[in-house]
Amino acid sequence: IQYIDRGFSFPSLCFSGQFAIVKQCREKSSGLEFAAKFIKKRQKREVNILQQIQHPNIVTLHDVFENHQLHCDIIMFLVSGGELFDFLAQKESLSEEEATQFIKQILEGVNYLHARKIAHFDLKPENIMLLDKNVPLPRIKLIDFGLAHKIEAGVEFKNIFGTPEFVGKMSYFKSYLKC
């Protein structure tokens, strides 16, 4: 991965998953910190979707580099407050106000996507990040658009997408989703 030539340094690995590697990086010219996601070009649908969206509750795309025939590197603004999943696991309970604010932010992000006919297909607590967990009411960002699709009229989805534990049960009973 040849990002150093493009003005970025990579102090640490954040996450390595089935389809991507995510590293924290620093832009040398500005000193700003970002998250760099390295994907195969065949998964470029994520880039196309991120280029179409801009919302306070959705991770923001900063830049995209295609470094050779097989790879596409996505630079996104760093969301460093950790996963909502971990935040919830550490707290004994949420106040009504905290729960309401989290739900409101999640629904605002999802509503924005749906208004643009985009389905995330992998919305779960691990794909919801906090900007800063050390504030009374943390702001959230939806992340990981690797399974997201732009929905077009008449298109049928015959596969089940997402993490099995978070897929709606009706998806298993219905063989396809018709839009």
UniProtKB/TrEMBL annotation:
Residues 8-179 form the Protein kinase domain. The keyword Nucleotide-binding applies. The keyword Transferase applies. One of its GO terms (cellular component) is nucleus. GO terms for biological process: intracellular signal transduction; positive regulation of apoptotic process. Transmembrane segments: none annotated. Keywords: ATP-binding, Kinase, Nucleotide-binding, Serine/threonine-protein kinase, Transferase. One of its GO terms (molecular function) is protein serine/threonine kinase activity. PANTHER family: DEATH-ASSOCIATED PROTEIN KINASE 2 (PTHR24342:SF15), SERINE/THREONINE-PROTEIN KINASE 17 (PTHR24342). This is Death-associated protein kinase 2a. It comes from Lates calcarifer.
